[in-house]
Specification:
The protein is an alpha/beta fold. It is about 45% helix and about 15% strand. It has one domain: TIM Barrel, CATH 3.20.20.
Length: about 260
Amino acid sequence: MRKLLVAGNWKMHGRLSQNEELMNSLFQQLPALSESIDILVCPPSIYLDQIKRLVDGRLIGVGAQNVSCFELDGAHTGEYSASMLADLGVSYVLIGHSERRSEQHESNDQVAIKLKNALKAGLVPLLCVGETLAEREAGLVENVIADQLSIAFAGLDSDELSRVVVAYEPVWAIGTGKTATPEQAQHVHAYIREFVAGGFGSELSLNMKILYGGSVKAANAEELFKQPDIDGGLIGGAALVTEEFTAICRAAANSPKYG
């Protein structure tokens, strides 16, 4: 049975005082929910140490938003490696978020390298995949997803892949207020699960968490999480509002599938 995961991506938001206030309010709301679902926050890297100290063993995971393509220490100014994140006590890392792909021009090949570096360091990678509006309108959704997954998974064995979480984020629904309908999201999630089953077997596929990340809010979380292949959410702006994030986590915890 797949335990639902709700991951809050803070993106480029936060200040020391704001972070502490947000986390303290989450600690008041989330302990009971964290017994039935996994909860994760991904602050900007500069605040990872602060958030890790604030969490201090509570049942909330801490993840990074990015990691370097370089595996080893070296002359790579501004970069930080997967082993550094592990040394800091970070447990998860986002890989290939749509904003990284578009704004920093990360290629599928770079995403694949980052994924492998994260796995070597013992981190849980949240691999983000998804299509643009133009690709959807051209009927290329499955082609785009297949390309992204094929390159990212190349060379991985079943044990490595079993530690990967996939997040489907339609690019046209990121930060736009738009969201795929539950049926649209479910269709792509089912395709991802079928793709994994075809390459690595049905058991691994059935155990893989596949999150939806496209303007998830309290208002739509319940319907999204009812879908059979949606195992939680990668949450953007709503992760910065205690009431919204808590309501999304509650919707996951109350899911009739696994709650």
